[in-house]
Design goal:
The protein folds into two domains: 204 residues, Up-down Bundle (Growth Hormone, Chain: A), CATH 1.20.1250.20; 203 residues, Growth Hormone, Chain: A. The protein is an all-alpha fold. Helix 5 runs antiparallel to helix 10. It is globular and about 60 Å long.
Length: 421
């Protein structure tokens, strides 16, 4: 029989969720260090832009290849144990990277392999973390819980992880990889000790894994709310990735539209993070006042419109403010869409539906990056930006047309409700 954390009782978020939140913060702090450190380490190994860019590709490939299969694993096994195991493997891989770096044996193929394995652990840890949240908090507290999770992710990754990596690289890449490994191990330990109980959503099944994959895909295709949510998320990710893949060319350099120096450019991304943290804190209050669907669609639409500011008014301060608002509106929309999916999908299907949805939405991101570069090369940077905004607004229009015409009914999950400790 599956377990439910004690934090499920009452209206608060509870101790079980706090353990998950702490583990998420530590894991994302490790992400921030590794994400900043790996490209810097690559620059000491190669001068090839193509090889350096492979680090990013290695991080996304596991979602394309393993997203559906990982969803089946999440729905068949204890979601807490999956996270602990994934974080433990991540810590071991990062420790190996530290040893290779300290002994002078780190090579570009080894770094790519480390990034690839790291990406695999990300798939399982992220899907497990998302799927377990409805077992930790009441349904009406999902927006607040998801807001806190996304806020902690932004703070740990951007505000803490990147500067920490910058300081550690002065000591050496080995120290940075070792610190990231220790943080990942601490994240696994926090979850193993702080979150008690078993979190297997359904009894053991004898059905074929392919049948379960088809079941998750069929749920996405047939559900009148999940289907437009997944399609819109994929289109928005495609558009935004294409936009930001070439944005640095618009912002940095004496011949660019904005004329920023390389040192000033990170302040724009910092604005995105500031807005994201604010959005994570305000989402619950906004949706209670204005309604869930109205807030979600308005936030996503406003975020796409704000991305016109750098094209129409390429002033550093104006763009910084616009990007802060993009971070706020984007996080608000993401929190509400994630909370909506968690309510509508039966707990026994959360892993498979999440895997199917992320395979689509994350799989379109590298395609968006390539398209953005090709359009900019052929027609100019501004054309890429306008095209991205048009696609993003079309996705928001899809949601506005599709969602008000259906009745949003939370999933009936008697099996999950009977699983209380």
């Amino acid at each position: 029989m599956a377990g439910r954390a004690s934090g499920r009782r009452g209206a608060g978020l509870g101790s079980g969720f706090r353990a998950q939140l702490a583990s998420t913060g530590l894991a994302n702090l490790a992400d921030g260090v590794f994400g900043t450190l790996a490209p810097l380490a690559a620059l000491t190994l190669t001068s090839s832009p193509a090889q350096v860019s492979l680090l990013t590709a290695a991080g996304w490939v596991p979602w394309l290849v393993l997203g559906l299969a990982a969803g089946v694993v999440i729905d068949r096994t204890d979601r807490r144990r999956v996270q602990v195991l994934a974080l433990g493997v991540r810590a071991a891989v990062l420790a190996a990277a530290a040893v290779l770096s300290l002994t002078g044996r780190l090579s570009m193929p080894a770094l790519l392999a480390i990034a690839l394995i790291y990406g695999v652990t990300e798939v399982f840890a992220d899907l497990g973390a998302t799927a377990i949240v409805p077992d930790l908090v009441p349904a009406d507290r999902l927006p607040a819980a998801n807001g806190r999770l996304l806020g902690v992710q932004q703070v740990a990754n951007t505000f803490l992880g990147s500067p920490l990596a910058g300081a550690l690289i002065v000591v050496g890449a080995g120290a940075g990889f070792g610190t990231s490994a220790a943080l990942a191990a601490l994240a696994a330990l926090t979850l193993a000790v702080g979150l008690r109980g078993r979190f297997r959503p359904t009894p053991r099944t004898t059905s074929h894994p392919l049948a379960e994959v088809r079941e998750g895909l069929a749920f996405v295709v047939r559900h009148p709310v999940i289907r437009p949510l997944v399609i819109a998320a994929g289109l928005i990710n495609l558009a935004n990735t294409g936009y930001f893949a070439v944005f640095v060319l618009w912002a940095v350099g004496p011949d660019s539209a904005m004329g920023l120096t390389p040192a000033l450019f990170p302040l724009l991304t910092l604005g995105l993070a500031v807005g994201a943290v604010a959005g994570s804190l305000l989402t619950d209050r906004l949706q209670r006042r204005f309604g869930e669907l109205r807030t979600m669609i308005a936030a996503l639409t406003a975020g796409e419109l704000l991305m016109l500011v750098p094209v129409l008014w390429p002033n550093g301060w104006a763009v910084a403010v616009a990007f802060a608002l993009v971070g706020l509106t984007g996080t608000t929309g993401n929190v509400l869409t994630q909370s909506l999916r968690q309510r509508l999908v039966p707990r026994g299907l959360l892993g498979r539906v999440g895997g199917a949805g992320r395979t689509l939405s994350y799989g379109l991101m590298p395609i968006g990056a390539v398209l953005g570069g090709l359009i900019a090369e052929r027609f100019g940077l501004a054309t890429t930006f306008y095209a991205a905004v048009v696609v993003g607004l079309a996705a928001c229009g899809l949601l506005a047309l599709a969602l008000p015409n259906v009745v949003i009914q939370p999933a009936d999950a008697p099996a999950a409700e009977s699983a209380t400790v």
